[in-house]
Amino acid sequence: MKRIFLFLLAGTLLFACDSEEDNSDGSGGSNLVGQDGNPRFNLQFTNPSNVDLDLYVKTPSGQIIYYGNRNANSGTLDVDCLCSSCPSGPNENIYWQNGTAPSGQYEYWVKYYGNCGTSGSSSTYTLRVIRNGSVLTTKTGTLSSVGETTHWFHTN
User: Fold this and answer.
1) Residue 141 near residue 149, CB atoms below 8 Å
2) Considering all CA atoms of the chain, what is the largest pairwise distance in Å, rounded to the nearest integer?
3) How far is it, in rounded angstroms, from Cα 19 to Cα 33?
4) In this predicted model, what pLDDT tens digit does every residue of 118-134 receive, in sequence order?
5) How would you classify residue 20: left for phi > 0, otherwise alpha for psi between -120 and 50, otherwise beta?
6) Which of 8, 24, 65, 114 has the highest CB neighbour number within 10 Å of its CB?
7) What is the Cα 50 distance to its own chain's centre?
8) DSSP per-residue string spanning the chain
9) Per-residue model confidence (pLDDT) at position 24
10) ∠ CA 117-119-120, rounded to 5°
11) Are 77 and 84 in contact (CB under 8 A)?
12) Burial bucket for residue 52 (CB in 10 Å: 0-12, 13-18, 19+)
């Protein structure tokens, strides 16, 4: 069941998200691969031998952090999985050290970058947005063709 969550403080929309599962897994991000951060965007996916999924985060200033630009606006991509070359497993992670993240709206997405030589392969994924040690939202889905993407917005 798809639910939409709006978070308000003194009449101001802080962020909106939709989710197909509970927004908190109770982990606080502690069992995820990569550096903890504030905020932190963490992607876990299946089928890394046949599918290359990539995590992208667009900062409030418009810079995009991804495999081709690992550092922007004090944010860092520290875990990147490329087909079978995934020393940390099928994970990607983008984070900011406490107090370094710019305020404003972040856009983030998962892209099916490549099929690793096996066309027709799909992969499920779980993407978590974490702030102050708490999972704010968890997104799940399946991507099955090169170039396919999913997008979301989050306000810091």
Assistant:
1) no
2) 52
3) 22
4) 888 999 999 999 998 89
5) alpha
6) 65
7) 20
8) --EEEEEEETTEEEEEEEESS-S--S-TTTTSSS---SSEEEEEES-TTT-EEEEEEE-TTS-EEBTTB-EETTEEEEE--BTTB-TT-SEEEEEE-TT-SPSSEEEEEEEEEE-TT-TT--EEEEEEEEETTEEEEEEEEEE-STT-EEEEEEE-
9) 37
10) 150
11) no
12) buried
Structure tokens at 7: 């978070």
The structure tokens 């982990």 sit at: 27
**Can you tell me which residue has the tokens 């099929």?**
115
Q: Which two tokens stand for residue 73?
A: 């606006």
Q: Give me 108's structure tokens.
A: 């983030």
**Count of CA atoms in the C-beta half-sphere (13 A) of 103:** 1
pLDDT in tens, 52-80: 999 999 999 999 999 999 999 999 999 99
The two three-digit tokens of residue 93, written as one number: 């992670």
